[in-house]
Automatic annotation (TrEMBL):
InterPro entries per UniProt: Gln_synt_N_sf, Gln_synth/guanido_kin_cat_dom, Gln_synth_cat_dom
Protein name (database record): L-glutamine synthetase
Family the entry assigns: Belongs to the glutamine synthetase family.
Domain GS catalytic: 112-452
Lineage: Bacteria, Bacillati, Actinomycetota, Actinomycetes, Geodermatophilales
SUPFAM superfamilies the UniProt entry points to: Glutamine synthetase, N-terminal domain, Glutamine synthetase/guanido kinase
Organism: Geodermatophilus ruber
Length: 452
């Protein structure tokens, strides 16, 4: 079978070394628009061919975007060998991340990883290395939650239903250790740099916090993290969801992005000098200004489902503050704002991003927006110290349709993404909104059938 690049003796030796450790198969996963890894399975003795680009795909229509086209050229998966890991929950398998390429000649327009790499290069041209840390939240629940008539996600431990909230509850965390300990052990072996985990506000909701890294590496980690969480849950007879808002009375699941820039030569963070609110640099405020300027377009990626907009509300169904932003604003330690400049880390925290977001696409546009702010010295205005939900400032989009329209209209979108991506992403998301909007619900019938 033809390969894009030459097969090397070094890669043959690597295959033999892995086989000696009991590895039997390899994946070189490209990432679809939904953020899911896709790959053919390759016997380990075929690893040198895989690394040379032997595996080809027809991803349109199978990766969450586009319409299948049986006469379209195939794309090749080009593995990134630096991402190779042996999966600790199944040591027969070696994992890598791959870029989709037209025969090794140019990036595939719908490849999220290639889109992010373009913005990494743009930051490098300005002398920066972009860093990213993500705070993923998700729900873990018992399979019987899916039975017909069930109106809740049943947590793995009864203590997870403690009122008013299981957030930070030690008993809930200890009772959940059969799953949480597996995750922590796997993350330690895979060098995630885990430094904390906890029960979050929802019943059966958890968060893991781990080291920031260069933005591409962080996006690769998040792909592996989501896969790992699903596998660890299955080992415990449980299920995981990254749906942003499974039920109206549950806390939404976010994936806060903490992005910063470092000087490419010195490795020094350029966002903060010292401590306190006065320590943030002019560069930081320009970066914030750029993100705020393009916030409405960014929302189409950071909040990519119709369900996402059930999270971006001021209050939960029971009246509690949602902790999710609704206004295009920033503050220092103000968790009601879209962007926060936290006291304990020199990074811009984007609190709008939810658990369904494709990390590569969201990070690419957020970074591009921040760099636009730096290039044009965009003023973000005054930081807010009030509850921003009631502030007289522009709002984030309130629906997926509104967000997609902003995405299409923003000139920055057309600098970051290929025209084919913009067209097909918008078509896919508008169709998703149309399907949801066409459904007549029981709630509507109860409200209108006999009352009008």
């Amino acid at each position: 079978m033809d390969t894009v690049n030459e097969i090397t003796d070094e890669h043959r030796r690597l295959a033999q070394e892995l086989a000696g450790k009991g590895v039997k198969y390899a994946f070189a996963s490209w990432i679809d628009v939904l953020g899911r890894p896709k790959s053919k399975t390759v016997p380990i003795d075929h690893l040198p061919n895989l690394l040379a680009g032997s595996e080809r795909y027809t991803p349109r229509g199978m990766g969450g975007i586009g319409v299948m086209d049986p006469v379209e050229d195939e794309v090749a998966g080009i593995p990134d060998l630096s991402t190779l890991k042996v999966l600790p929950w199944d040591r027969r398998v070696a994992w890598m991340v791959a870029d989709m390429s037209w025969g090794g000649r140019e990036p595939y327009a719908l490849c999220p990883r290639s889109i992010l790499k373009k913005q990494v290069a743009a930051a490098a041209e300005l002398g920066f290395v972009a860093q990213l840390g993500v705070e993923p939240e998700f729900y873990v629940f018992k399979p019987e939650s899916l039975q017909e008539g069930s109106r809740q996600l049943i947590p793995m431990a009864q203590s997870g239903e403690i009122k008013p909230s299981p957030a930070y509850d030690v008993e809930t965390t200890v009772d959940s250790l059969p799953f949480l300990d597996k995750m922590a052990s796997y993350m330690a072996e895979l060098d995630f740099g885990l430094f904390s985990f906890d029960a979050e506000g929802g019943e059966g909701q958890y968060e893991f916090d781990f080291a920031h890294a260069p933005v591409l590496e962080s996006a690769d980690r998040l792909t592996l993290f989501r896969f790992m969480a699903r596998q660890a849950a299955k080992e415990c007879g449980l299920l995981v969801t990254f749906m942003p808002k499974p039920f109206a009375d549950l806390w939404g699941s976010g994936a806060h992005f903490n992005m910063s820039l470092e000087d490419a030569d010195s490795g020094k963070n350029v966002f903060r000098e010292g401590t306190g609110n006065d320590a943030w640099t002019k560069l930081t405020y320009a970066f914030v200004g750029g993100i705020l300027k393009h916030a409405r377009a960014l929302t189409a990626l950071a909040n990519p489902t119709t369900n996402s907009y059930r999270r971006l509300v001021p209050r939960l169904a029971d009246g509690q503050i949602s902790w999710a932003p609704t206004k295009i604003s920033y503050g220092y330690n103000n968790r009601s704002c879209m962007l926060r400049l936290p006291a304990n880390r020199p990074a811009v925290e984007n609190r709008a991003v939810d658990s369904a977001a494709n990390t590569y696409l969201t990070a690419a546009f957020m970074l591009a927006a921040g760099l636009d702010g730096i290039r044009n010295n965009i003023d973000p205005g005054e930081a807010r110290d009030d509850l921003s939900y009631m502030a007289q400032v522009d709002s984030l989009p309130r629906s997926l349709l509104e967000a997609v329209e902003a995405f299409e209209a923003d000139p920055l979108t057309h600098e970051v993404f290929h025209p084919n991506f913009i067209r097909e992403y918008a078509e896919m998301k508008v169709a998703e909104w149309d399907r949801a909007n066409l459904e007549v619900t029981d709630r509507e019938r109860a409200a209108y059938l006999l009352n009008l």
